[in-house]
Design a protein that fits this description.
Blueprint: E1 2-4, E2 9-11, E3 18-20, E4 24-27, E5 33-36, E6 41-42, H1 52-55, H2 65-75, H3 82-94, H4 99-112, H5 114-130
Antiparallel strand pairs: 1-4, 2-3, 3-6, 4-5
Length: about 130
Amino acid sequence: MKLNGRLVVELLPDGRNALVLEDCEIVDDNGRAWPISKGLVSDGGSLPPASWSPLGLSPFTGACRAGFFAHDQAYQTPGVNKDQADLMLRDYCAETIEHWKAEAIYAGVRRCGASSYAEDQFDAAAALLKTP
């Protein structure tokens, strides 16, 4: 997997979200592009914050940071398959951090990401319906 471009973000005053300032993308080993678009507001993915410290990482710092932002955007994109998005995050992280941490991240989003995915898909579909 490869990150094309630079992930540039601004941490927002709410202390929980970040705004993407430049377009970039992750391209997986099958050639699929996972965009990270300028203007995306991300809470760092669907990994529960309580798991960040035990894993020794945060979605806002570290080697697999771009994976969390691509994962968040995938969840917010109508029709993107949750399982594929979760696997992309695992695979991206597995190339940048210890394998067991990547598997723990994957287990976390598999178990805890369903409600975020459903809410994000609903919001994305509603936004499409409002678009003239």
